[in-house]
Design a protein that fits this description.
The protein is mostly helical. The chain is about 45% helix and about 10% strand.
Amino acid sequence: MLKMKKYWFCMFTCVLVTVINSQDQEYTKLVNLDQHCFRCLCRAATNCNMTFGCVQGYCGPYKISRIYWIDAGRVTLPDDDVERAGAYEDCALSFHCAQRIVLKYFLKYGRDCNDDGVTDCNDYSMINFNGGHGCRGDLNRSEPGRAWLKRYHACNPYPAGL
């Protein structure tokens, strides 16, 4: 029985991340984080407003803060320097670079926030709004959280456990 428990634990945790090499370009894919989920997270953040700019310390269509960017490993545009003033803003304002920031953040903090046994877009939504250390916080506890949920539900109408 102990062997079986270890096996199932490994299936849920070991299969979470897949690294794929394609034409000398390495990218990482998280299980259950697909383009639909990225669209819903973008929609929840700013209605995927590509002209959002930087407002009150949050930049781009995913509304990424400098601290989020740092936690994600200081992702930059290709050939940019992380030390350059504006590197964070430029990446967060670029749709594809911002997606890489979000992906790297979830690689660091991704987990089952709603205790349903699966790490999926609902969990990534909670992580994105509450931050990596507080993903279990109820999104309905504040007006910004309720607004986030409303936009997220419009895109993903089956958010079990949120």
